[in-house]
Please model this.
Amino acid sequence: MNTTMIIQLITGALGSTAFGILFHMKSKHLPLAAAGGILSWLVFILGKVLWGNVFLPTLLAGFIADVYAEILARICKGTSTSFFVASVIPLIPGSTLYYCMSSIVEGNTIKALTYGRDTFLFAFGIAAGMSIAWAICYFFRSIRAKQH
Model:
């Protein structure tokens, strides 16, 4: 691990913790929010190294973040939404959206389309990963409910 990656993971943890505070997460759960931010960003970084684009790494990171949130919701007897939102914060495409808007204002259509595409792929990857994980968890919960 290089210094840049460590800084990114630390800021991901801090951002996730801050959003946990913003969403009134119990203080005993804030370290779990930080761990979720580290986990989702680490999965994204590793996926980016493997695949090089943004969609598949974001999809995988969103999937892992949702599975992590579902597990924590069962352990902590809470909702998975608060854990998911806090964990996925590092993946939110704020910089690409900013650069897209900046390129539009500058009149640089090519750069705007590139950044716009990346913003869409980030957002779609998060949503798709979350949806796939949620559907799998729902399937297992329904099977478990039928057994009891």
Summary: The longest helix spans residues 109-147. The mean pLDDT is 93. The helical segments are 3-22, 30-51, 55-76, 80-88, 94-106, 109-147. The CA atoms of residues 69 and 84 lie 5 Å apart.
